[in-house]
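User: I'm designing a mutation panel for LacI family DNA-binding transcriptional regulator and want to avoid disrupting the core. Could you give me a predicted structure to guide residue selection? Please restate the sequence first so the numbering is unambiguous.

Assistant: Good idea. Sequence first, for numbering, then the predicted C-alpha cells:
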Amino acid sequence: MTTKKATIKDVAREAKVSIASVSRVLNGLGGVTADTQDAVRKAAARLHYVPDSAARSLITGRTHTIGAVLPDLYGEFFSELIRGIDLAARARGLHLLVSSSHDGVEDAAAAVRTMRGRVDGMIILSEFVDGEFLDRNLPSDLPVVLLDSPVDSPRYPSINIDNIAGAQAMVKHLLDVGHDSVAFITGPAGNYDAQEREKGYRAAMSASAPDAPLQIVTGDFTEESGYRAGRELLALAKRPRAVFAANDMTAVGCLYAFKEAGVRVPEDIAIAGFDDILIARYVTPLLSTVSVSIADLGKSALLLLTELMEGKGPQGANTRTLRCDVVVRESCGAHKTNVATKQPPALV
C-alpha cells in the first residue's frame, strides 16, 4: 500500500497556521514569528514533507542548483575538484549539475546553454571559454566563476592555480640538487594550465641553466602520453638527467616507460610531476611533485559563487590565485624520502 505524500496543506493543518506562513518558512522568506517557524518545521518533519522543487523555484526564483562545466571527468584531478565543489555545495543546501567532455567550442557552448534556467550559478573550466564565448552564451545576470582561465573581466571572477611559480620552483629544485639537464613533457595544446606550466619550465631553465638545451616532448595529461614521451626521451642520443611532467598522470606513464626499459629512477633519470594526486604517494619510487589542493580549489570556487549569488561578490576585475608547493619525495633524487614541510594552501 502506497502512503500518500504530504502536501503543504497538510503541513499548514498540522502546524495550525496558514499555507502562506508555511510557504514563507520553508522558502526562507521571513516575515513570520519564531514560534511559527518552529511549529512549521516540526510539522513538516512529523509528516515527512518534501517540498516540490519546481513549485519552490517558482516562488523563490531559485533552483538551488549550481552547474559545473568541465573539460573532462577522467583522472583524479577532476574527481577531487568535483568532490570539493560538491561538499561545499551540499553544506549550503545546493545541488550540483555537471557537464563534461566537450569536443569543441560548439559542444561546450551547447553544454553551457543547456544549463540556463536550471542553475542559479555556474563554475566553468574549459579551454574554449573566453569573454566573447561567455557573453554570447550566458545571461548577463547569471553568476559565473571561472577556474584556471586567462579571461580577465570584471563580469567573470576567476580562481587560478599558480602554475608558473609552481613549475619554476620544481625545475629550480631539480637543477639545485644536481640535475644539469631537465626535459619537460607538455600538457594538451590549448590547455591554459599546461601553457602556464611550460612558461614556468622555460623561465626556470633560462634563469638557472641558461646554457642547458630545452628538451620539450609532447604530452596530453594522460598516462599513455607520458609513456610515449618516456620512450621518446630514452631514444635520444643524450638523455636528460631529469624529467618534469606537466601533471602527475603523465609522470606516472613516463615512470613506467623507464622501469620497462630498466632505467633506474632517480639514479639514472629523475622524475617529477604536478598536482600531487593520490597515486603520487603510492608509486615506486614515490613521486616528487608540485602540490595543489585540488579539493580546496573546488571549494573556493563554490564559496565565491555563492557570494556572487547573494550579491556580495567582488566588484571589478578579480582573479584569485591558489598557491602551490614543491613536495620532495624519492623520484627527484634529492636524498630525501619524506614530504617537504608545506604551508597550508592559501588564496593570494
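For picking mutation sites, this is relevant: Residues 147 and 196 are 14 Å apart (CA to CA). The chain has a mean pLDDT of 86.
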